[in-house]
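Why run this: before we spend reagent on co-expression, it is cheaper to look at a predicted model of the complex and decide which construct boundaries make sense. The entries below are exactly what would go into the expression plan.
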Amino acid sequence: MIYMQAHNKASEWFDGLYQNNKKTHENIPWARQAVNPLLQTYLDEEISHKGTALVIGCGLGDDARALELVGYDVTAIDVSQTVLDLAKERFAGSHIKFIKQDIFEYTQTFDFVFEALTVQSLPIAFREKMIKAVAGTVVQGGRLLLVAHKKEEVFEGPPWPLTKEEVELFKTCGLTELSHELHTEDSKISNTHFRVFYKK
Ligand SMILES: C[S@@+](CC[C@H](N)C(=O)[O-])C[C@H]1O[C@@H](n2cnc3c(N)ncnc32)[C@H](O)[C@@H]1O
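The model came back. Tokens follow.
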């Protein structure tokens, strides 16, 4: 019960932030309004992009759009109806399926899943459940690209960057690491991002 309350509170917090920043999005710390560069390098590196793709916690929708442009049939989920409406408006000409959906209750599977910064955005009490939920969206034989801040020192969240051990947990959910990279980008959260590519 306490778990559900904390979870609902997190969802309301995100929706409130998007509501208050509908016009310019400038106070939404993660809103690049451009594709995540660590997704873009994957799209540039891999030759073949086909099948279904899922973006978890899609925010304003730029990553979903980038996946659609290279050829995926894209579903993008988020708990905030406000941000889904903004994303639909921004990419009005696209065929992306923007759906209000809680990752913890999602049962669909996809050929390619992109998750950036959503696992770390929920309190650590949710971590294992969240990792299982993310891994559960990858079809057998499919791929997951994970982007997250690496925990470097004590940081009073939100967000709550991931430790190396937490990233390892994806491997207990039927996923095998294909590559594991650390990337540097200045940020007050941490200057290092994990970019980990898995297959199921
Ligand atoms: C830190 S933001 C990251 C947004 C985007 N992935 C990015 O990298 O810019 C986390 C997003 O996940 C969404 N979110 C939070 N909890 C969620 C849940 N349980 N299921 C689906 N989306 C969720 C939030 O509304 C928010 O848009």
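The CA atoms of residues 16 and 108 lie 27 Å apart. The chain has six helices and seven strands. Bring this page to Monday's planning discussion.
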